[in-house]
Amino acid sequence: MQPVYLAALRSWSIPPAATFALVLSALVYLRGWWLLRRAGSPSIPPWRAVSFIGGLLTLFVALASPMDVFNGFLVTAHMLQHMLLMMVAPPLILLGSPLIPLVRGLPVFAAREFAGPFLNWPLAGRIGLTLTHPVCALILMGVVMFAWHTPALYELALRSSAWHQTEHAFFFLTSLIFWWPVIQPWPSRARWPRWAMVPYLVIADLQNTALSAILVFSDRVLYPSYSRAPRLFGLSAMEDQAAAGSIMWVLGSVAFLIPAVIIAVQCLSKKSPSSDVVSTRKRDVSPPDASLLTSEPTPSIARGTPSERRRRRREAAVFLALFLATGLCFAGLLDFAPSDDDGQALLFQGTPGRFAVTVFGPPDEIETGTISFGVLVQDRTSGAVSLDAPVELAARPANVDGPSLAAIQATHEESPNKLLHAFGIAIQEAGLFDIQIGVGAERDTALSMPIPVVKPEYHIAFPWGSASLLLLAVLLLLTYLYRHRSAGPVQLEHPVSPV
Question: Which of 183, 216, 410, 461 could be bridged to 421 by S-S, CB 3.0 to 4.6 A?
Fold first, then answer.
């Protein structure tokens, strides 16, 4: 394999907060699955656990692999990422019947006091039934898919890391809602006859086909950022767009039509139209140890026999310790970890010698301190990416005689995108600076790029992670107090053993 393709395959960018959330979800699910299996539940066979973990791994690949690193360069990479988020990960996760294992995998105190009552809350039930109604799910899927592929919103997601993550969240959550009536995960109940899922999937495929055709047959580049981006792997912007539309067309049709065919064959046969999902839904609507999902308040920590009070205090202490540990870790990753994206914008393009050079840097105002740049070097004639050409950078104040800052040799290892030469240069004074870049062993390609550097404004970044943790803690406390506000001295007839 050519070195350029190997470098592209090595271009992974691990998102810390998302990775932590996925690992935590896997651990909670596997604990719940193991407890259900130990209790003798036939509703969650091993293949369902494999499917759920496969869905989480698919999410991780979509968010951390080269598809995420290169989605600002290639529409095809961005489209493959969307296909994983919408067509692969959601059905795999739902095939794992995640609802009961996730609740069962929580600490007992959390399951009884928060997760179970929430699932039994009438308003939550009505909202869930409305969203997962096939008509609502189909409309949501179509609206979100078309809206985020309009040039305005698509370009917004390319320019902003926050909006890009919002786009991914919309795609994933609406796809979970869309696939819910098709998979019908245990212990939910179907709203429509099983045969109705065939036209449901066919209509979704028609929506997907219409959007794909727009990309394939458009006579212009729909997203201007890709027309300005350096071309990689020999694809022009129009070819890249057409290839992305073809990927969406083919993979989307496969994802929609294969389940439609399977359901049609099942409905035409004399056997039950579904596998163990429907059968278990009929005989096992109530999961083992259903008291974890009860909406009736259990006696508060201060009531009950001495042994019951000790047990409930122990359950509350375990929950509190785990909540603080995981909450603080997640909040720290959100507040202090680097962005999931490489967070650089195109600053300069030029061909002053035998190389074509593209410079990437901070997307907003460039502030004093260590400034990170990335340089893509390509052959001027063929457009082939050059990984071996040495790149050196220096900076000096513009229009001022004086020595340059120390020259820095760029390296590929500092950037998630291994096709870029990356480096950071320290500039401590505000003003206009010339960034001087030399490429090649003999510096046969040299360019100078003026950049304004400003003093950073002294402001405190809002700690979204810590604020979210505090808000969640307050909501949980209020929920507990509300549930036990009128709970009398109730005695447990059948105390539930701690998990």
Answer: 410
Q: Of 430, 435, 428, which Cα lies nearest the Cα of 450? A: 435
Contact yes or no for 36/44 (Cβ under 8 A): yes
Which of left, alpha, beta for 399 (phi over 0: left; psi -120 to 50: alpha)? left
- Give 300's contacts (C-beta < 8 A, 6+ positions apart): 312, 484, 487
Q: What is the DSSP string of 397-417?
A: ETT--SPPPPPEE-BGGGSSS
HEC assignment per residue over 354-383: CEEEEEEECCCCEECEEEEEEEEEEECCCC
* Cβ contact 153:147 at 8 Å: yes
Query: Is 179 strand, coil or helix?
Result: helix
Cα separations in angstroms, 315 against 109, 111, 296, 319, 327 = 6, 11, 18, 6, 18
DSSP 40: T
Q: Where are the beta strands (DSSP E) in 126-215?
A: none
Q: Hey, what are 15's tokens?
A: 């998102």
d(CA 6, CA 333): 30
Q: From residue 35, give the alpha-carbon distance in Å to each of 43, 85, 102, 498.
A: 12, 29, 11, 12
- Tokens 């929920």, residue? 479
pTM of the model: 0.85
Q: What are the C-alpha distances in Å from 258 to residues 48, 198, 212, 418?
A: 20, 10, 18, 37
* Per-residue pLDDT tens digits of the chain, which is 499 residues long: 577 878 888 888 888 989 999 999 999 999 999 999 888 877 789 999 999 999 999 999 999 988 888 888 899 999 999 999 999 999 999 999 999 999 999 998 888 888 888 888 888 889 989 999 999 999 999 999 999 999 999 999 888 888 899 999 999 999 999 999 999 998 888 888 999 999 999 999 999 999 999 999 998 999 998 988 888 877 889 999 999 999 999 999 999 999 999 999 988 886 544 444 334 344 344 444 444 555 556 666 666 677 877 888 888 888 899 989 998 888 888 877 665 445 678 888 877 777 888 888 887 778 888 888 888 888 888 888 888 888 888 888 877 665 556 567 777 777 788 888 888 888 888 888 888 888 876 666 677 888 888 887 766 667 777 888 889 889 888 888 888 775 444 443 444 333 3
Asked if residue 194 lies in contact with residue 154, where contact means CB atoms within 8 angstroms, the answer is no
Q: Give the domains, in start order, of the chain with CATH numbers.
A: 3-298 (no CATH), 345-454 (2.60.40.1930)
